[in-house]
Amino acid sequence: MNGTEEAFGRLVWAPDPQDGFRLCILRDIGSEAVSVEPIYGGPVVSARYDEIFPTEKDEKKDVDDNCALMYLNEGTLLNNCRLRYARKQIYTYVANILISINPYEQIPDLYSGATIQKYQGKSIGTLPPHNSVGGGFISHYLLEKSRICHQLEGERNYHIFYQLIAGADEQMAKRLQLRSSNSFKYLKHGCTQFFSGPNTANKIAKDRRGKQDSDLHDELLDDYNDFQRLLKGLCSIGFDVQELNTLFDIVAAILHLGDIHFVENLEGAKDGCVIEPSSKASLHSAASLLGLDDYELKNGFTTRIMQPAKGGVKGTIIRIPLKPHEAAAARDALAKAIYSKLFDAIVSRINKCIPFSNSTSYIGVLDIAGFEFFTRNSFEQFCINYCNEKLQNFFNDRILKQEQDLYAKEGLNVARIEYNDNDDCIDLFERKMNGLLDLLDEEARLPKPSSHHFTSCAHQQLKNHFRLTTPRKSKLREHREMRDDEGLLIRHFAGSVCYETSLFLEKNNDALHSSLELLLDSSNVSFLRSLFSTNNDKSQDDIRKKSFSNKLVLASVSNKFRAQLIELLKKLQLTNTNFVRCIKPNSRMKPGEFEGAMILSQLKCAGMTSVLKLMQEGYPSRTSFAELYKTYEKIMPSKLTRLDPRLFCKCLFHALGLNETDFKFGQTKVFFRPGKFAEFDQMLRQDPVHMEGLIKKVQSWLLHVYWKKAQYGVLSCIKLKNKILWRTTQLTKIQSALRGHLSRKVYRPRLHLYRNTNMLWERVTELKKMLKHLSPSSQSEWSSVISEINTETQQLLRDIKKHFQTCDDKQLDNLKNHHERMLQKINSTLSLLRQQFARDEQRKIKKMEEKQRVEIEKEKQRKMEEQKLEQQRIERTKLEEKRKQEEEEYRLQQEVLRAQSEREEELRRQRNEELRQEELDGEIARRLAREDCTLQMIENNASRKEKNFGTSKYDLTKYKYVELRDIINTSTDTDLLIACKEEFHRRLQIYQQWKELNESSILERQTNRIPMAVLASSSKGFTSPFSQNNVTLQRYFKVPFAKPAHGHMNMRDVSEVASSHGMWYAHFDGQWIARQMELHPNKKPVLLLAGRDDMEMCELSLDATQLTRKKGAEITANEFEVLWYQCGGPEYHVRHERN
């Protein structure tokens, strides 16, 4: 099967609006998109390269850890989750991150005692993923108090309200004045239906049912039974009957508080309000259940009291009437404060019943709401999504940034993975002065705060912020109908969410009048008083001053929320964090239904797709050498436990024969590939026979190590012995030099004379040399004189040597005088010889002048020849300069193109970021549209259209790959041929880049398509303009598959490399490759032909490969053709011959 057939027919995951991804067959490749056909039927569709992913060889294969897949991408991740969910395996790993998909049903034996016992003592990855909680200490953060007073359509208030109404007996219901849920203001704006089962639906009193059509059914929820279980649970943690009655009195009182309504006072009170007559029963019920007087509670809602700091009679109390909306805000603040205090008290009572103080360590589980988006999003979603942005930022920092920093610190040489952070989105919320949170609090401080003014200020002060825009940019028509001052469209990490700001100020107002707090402190219900009791350490004056100052608790909901979030993140920073991503499988909450698009959107929102590549390339499991030693020292023999931790670990790994690609040794830790630590642990905890064999391997390896150390010790001793001998020799030389120096110091005058006499001897030698340059007649005249001087000099040297140690000062002076006489005689003789030499030279010159006249003619001839050679050299120099100039022009052209390419790349990066945000926005909009059929989504398909590359007059974007290939093989139109070749190879190049990007790291990446030397120097990042003058130019090249270590290459290097790694031959017909040969030692030749094997051939243009500028790469046509036909290649006709 050739490369084209193999590529067109491979299975890929392509995007699908319902299933997330659908299994398809690759049918054609384009410049920007590919054509795929669903394998189970359906029309051929087009998808971008970054939207399709390769599949596993067995698409039915599933694994506990997604990192064990050959290809780890969005498609295989979703498919693995789908396969496991179908078999009720709801837990799946991505390295050390757990994906949990809600089954919406009870799975048998999931948390049974036998299952828990099976997992005890097992490492992560040994068994399929599983969770269980045994107990601990409960800390709660970020209680959503606004839910008590406001719910979205179809959303419930807290379950306790419905459970109380459904499960209370007649006596309790009568005492608490309970009625149907849709009659309470705090419940009727949301979902008012009960959850019930087949055995409990008739147990709920009819007078407590509303006009809802039917109850809701869920395997895990049942309001009636849940209330009975709640009673038992509260009793088990120490609540007696009286406390239970008080607790439910307070819960019911909150419901009655919501039914107290206010109207303007029309009887003359300025700007005041009164309680609506129909609400007096609710006021009485709430007051009696809270242990308060009706009149005092009414005054607490409709007026505020204050005591002037200056002027007036000391202690005078002034009552200021409140407007209806102010009274309603005070009522809601009181309800939220009571519920919050009650919640804190119950959590505190639960913690007292759980033994935790004796624990030396703990596992903390943080359960928090995920990213939320609805058709109508308000302040609750604003806070939750802000919290999720912070947690996602922590996730990015812990999983992506810190993980890669640790790899670099430990020296693992793992390539860095780029990712998109959300720092700018957090900046949008938290920026000082003009961040959204500060703007909201600042608006609340104004005399007449307005949600429209707040929204306008946000858009005005943050108009250039990428993460904030107006609702008209939303993809849902319902949001586009909002005015700019009615909403905020925030581009979150998970996608854009449109928030309605009309209730932001009310929901952010958590202010409770001190007078209301003091009123509760005076309740005759002791349990309620304990919730609001004043600090005993304060003086009564301070209490009184606080009570009548009418100052509000300054912290807004958003301010408290931010403070709690900061505290939470500080705790998280101190922990070793593991992440669990909880996924909702379908919008109907039905068991067994797997909505792929919805799940994929949640995985993207959770940032899972950002970590897939890092998890596959990285080493998520790690432990220090000391911890590993401590873990296994008890099951190892004493011979091994005596080793230091690092050597101990090396012993284990070598003895087990682990694949070195499954682990890496860092500076202080050992790192494991996903799931490999569990295999390592399982191998160590085998039966005794296996352990005995393991110990023998370790001992054998240790013997080898010790033997190598012994060899090293012997070699070190030999080197030390040789060093000592060398030092002894050098010491002898030093002693000899010192003795010589002392002797020379004593005999220095005699030595001086001896050296000077030796210098006379050198002068005599100079006389002999000059004698040789004289004419024969002069030599006979002066030879006797020089011989006499020579004899006298030798005699003087003999006298000095003879009396060197015995002569006295007088004899030394005689020798010196003799030396002076000889020096004068030599100098005078030398002067006479020079004169004689001058006379002889004059005679020689006369003879040579005649010879020179003869040679002049020869010199003229020689110069003429040199001029000719110089002219040729100049011409060659000009040619070389011209070549260099052309090369420099090419380099400058390439720099211009490279700069242009970098600008285009930056624009492409920005556009990709916008497209990514658009895709996330589209996914969120599509999810909302699927859940609510009345919503209308606005698609923007302009960005999906394929670009028309090049400046060709032909539009080839709609041509199929095979059609382009046919045109190239048959067309005689030169312009069309060039355009088709450019388009054809552009598609090939994009497809090959897609393959390399999605190649599994487990498989060895195939680089034999093009030698590394060509890939390293190729200019893939930009496209050179092709000249039409060389469309039929035939050029041939050969390049070795490996580059010599010293960089340059000569013929000898080529031969050596060819014999060891092989050679790559290419025939370029114009700009594009026509034939390709790969010759490897001990292998069959690989012959590839354009039009048949394009997928396996070089897809780069000749200019892009830069082969024409590679020295020694180009070969003759004859050399290529000989090899081609010797290897059995078919006959090939070049283009101009066919034409």
TrEMBL record:
* InterPro entries in the record: Kinesin_motor_dom_sf, MYO6_lever, Myosin-VI_CBD, Myosin_head_motor_dom-like, Myosin_S1_N, P-loop_NTPase
Task: Answer whether the UniProt record assigns the keyword RNA-binding to this protein.
Answer: no
Q: Which domain of life is it from?
A: Eukaryota
State a single Pfam family of this protein: Myosin-VI_CBD
Q: Name one GO biological process term.
A: actin filament-based movement
Q: Which UniProt keywords apply?
A: Actin-binding, ATP-binding, Coiled coil, Motor protein, Myosin, Nucleotide-binding
Coiled-coil region(s): 839-918
Ranges for domain Myosin motor come to 61-685
- Kindly list the GO molecular function terms attached to this UniProt entry: actin filament binding; ATP binding; microfilament motor activity
Start and end residues of each stretch annotated as Actin-binding: 565-587
Q: Indicate yes or no for the key word Nucleotide-binding.
A: yes
One GO cellular component this record assigns the protein to is: plasma membrane
What family does the Swiss-Prot or TrEMBL record give for this protein?
Belongs to the TRAFAC class myosin-kinesin ATPase superfamily. Myosin family.
What is this protein called in UniProt?
Myosin motor domain-containing protein
Organism listed in the record? Elaeophora elaphi
